[in-house]
Amino acid sequence: MVIIISMELFRGYAYSPRAFEGLKNVLIENLRGKPPVFLCVGSDKLVSDCLAPIVAENLRQNDCPFYIYGGLNAPITATNCEFAHDFIRAVHPTSRLILIDSMATRSQARLGDIVVSREYYGAVNNLALHPDLCIYGVTSLLHGKMLDCARLRNVLFTANIIANAIFSSLNSLELNSQNVVALS
Length: 184
Hints:
It is a single chain. The protein is α/β, with parallel strands linked by helices. The protein has one domain (8-173): Rossmann fold, CATH 3.40.50.1450. The chain contains 4 helices and 7 strands, in the order βαβαβαββββα. Strands 1, 2, 3, 4, 5, 6 and 7 form a 7-stranded mixed β-sheet that branches. α1 (17-31) packs across α4 and α2 (51-61) packs across α4. The two termini are 22 Å apart. Residues 1-5 and 176-184 have low confidence and may be disordered.
């Protein structure tokens, strides 16, 4: 979970028709030339943190032809995220690393946003992660150090928008496919 993004490439409200197209266009622009690898960070222990695992499962269920790490069965969390990042960089040195995560905000107005950035801002600030692109879904409010309850409907909707934009951008690019694998 993150709080602030300083260097955004895109921000759009998930329920707006423009969010899908905007996210798709940013992905097309940033995925040219290299196949992506997806690192989906989060857990189903908290509704507000399960966005990325849901995206991972959606990508797998729809036969995404690229590597996907994380998900509901093999979650990537703060405890194993750095290992997963280093593993992906070693095993897929020519691929673009796309990190997907949920985000908390202090502003009610930002709840439901989808944010794309080149910088990783996670809940655990000491992680040394350097993805090529980060996709965040703003799923909950942050009050002090406590997360407010997230609505599962909103998390599912945002996860579906992200997964569908990924599929649409990959179809537009017609990248060479690889096998899908889960980190276990």
